Amino acid sequence: MSPSPAPPPQSARLRADCGRCFGLCCVVPAFAASTDFAIDKPAGQPCPNLGTDHSCGIHTELRQRGFPGCTVFDCFGAGQQVAQVTFGGRDWRDAPETLPAMAEAFAVLRPLHELLWYLDAAVALHPPADLRDELEHARAETAVLTAGDVAQLRAVDVAAHRARVNPLLSRAGDVARSPGGVDHRGAQLLGVDLRRADLRRANLRGALLIGADLRDVDLGLADVTGADLRGADLRGADLRRTLFLHQAQLDAARGDARTGLPATLTRPTHWTALALTPVRQPSRAGVPARRGRRR
Q1: How confident is the model at residue 280 (pLDDT cuts 50, 70, 90)?
Q2: Exposed e or buried b for every residue in 138-159, given b needs 16+ CB within 10 A?
Q3: The 3-state secondary structure of 222-288, one letter per residue
Q4: pTM for this one?
Q5: DSSP secondary-structure letter at 207?
Q6: How far apart are CA 31 and CA 15, in angstroms?
Q7: Residues 6 or more apart from 204 whose CB is under 8 A from it?
Q8: How far apart, in whole angstroms, are the C-alpha atoms of residue 130 and residue 15?
Q9: Which of 6, 117, 140, 151 sits most deeply, having the most CB atoms within 10 A of its CB?
Q10: Cis bond before residue 46 (omega within 30° of 0)
């Protein structure tokens, strides 16, 4: 068995610090009434649950009150970067005219901070020297972009920068997975029973795994970059060595006390303590027993 990949550095800069932010994730994005949000909220308008101190008035009851979408959002530290660095601690409540510019800066910094998180994780996989050099160069370039003022951030072409960085991240994942497993990159696996599938070293980049049944599946060295795990059943799954797994993916999924997690991630509080649902027998190895099943 190959050694487990080293956990990515968990820089405080890339972890959300709501106490140093101005509630930007509760103001900048638009909400649409759905299973994720109980209300409609236009972009740039504060959520009615946002207090004057920028704290959420229903933080401990978000799921029960119909706001699970709030619990799975991760700004990767972009919120405090905008609040404390880009705007030097100037609160939009005290200077309402700054809010549109803050929203612009947040929309740029959030994906850049996410890229920094992935680049840190890729470097921590100890790739070959030439690839490591390219990853570190991309990381330094991305960090420089995040340090800009509002005008400089406005000029950043995030899509173009991401297009340059993503192939490096993909290469890093491929090297770590070698010899690679099944290729499900971008696959639509919504509600599919995957309990008998061999997903070790699998390429699951961008896969839609919404509601998928992954109970007791070994996802060792599987690349889950951008995989949508909303409602996926991870009870008993082994995620200890999964590549590019971040906290928001876990928060969007279901799991239990048996789910194996990397040391750098936290077991979501809404996960059940024990597996309470009877296990349904799959049809045969590698073949989904039923498609489109949502629970």
Answers
A1: very low
A2: bbeebeebbebebeebeebebe
A3: CECCCCECCCCECCCCECCCCECCCHHHHHHCECCCCCECCCCCCCCCCCCCCCCCCCCCCCECCEC
A4: 0.87
A5: -
A6: 23
A7: 184, 185, 187, 222, 223, 224, 227
A8: 28
A9: 117
A10: no
At residue 183's C-alpha, the angle toward residues 165 and 254, to 5°, is 85
The residues that bridge with 16 in the sheet, in sequence order, are: none
- Cα separation, 236 vs 217, in Å, equals 7
CA distance 83 to 94: 13
- Report the candidate in 95, 86, 99, 89 with the shortest Cα–Cα distance to residue 26: 99
CA dist., res. 142 & res. 131, Å (int)? 16
pLDDT in tens, 50-69: 999 999 999 999 999 999 99
Both tokens assigned to 149: 């003022």
Residue in this structure with the two tokens 């840190």, named with its chain if needed: 120
- Interval 175-214: pLDDT, tens: 999 999 999 999 999 999 999 999 999 999 999 999 999 9
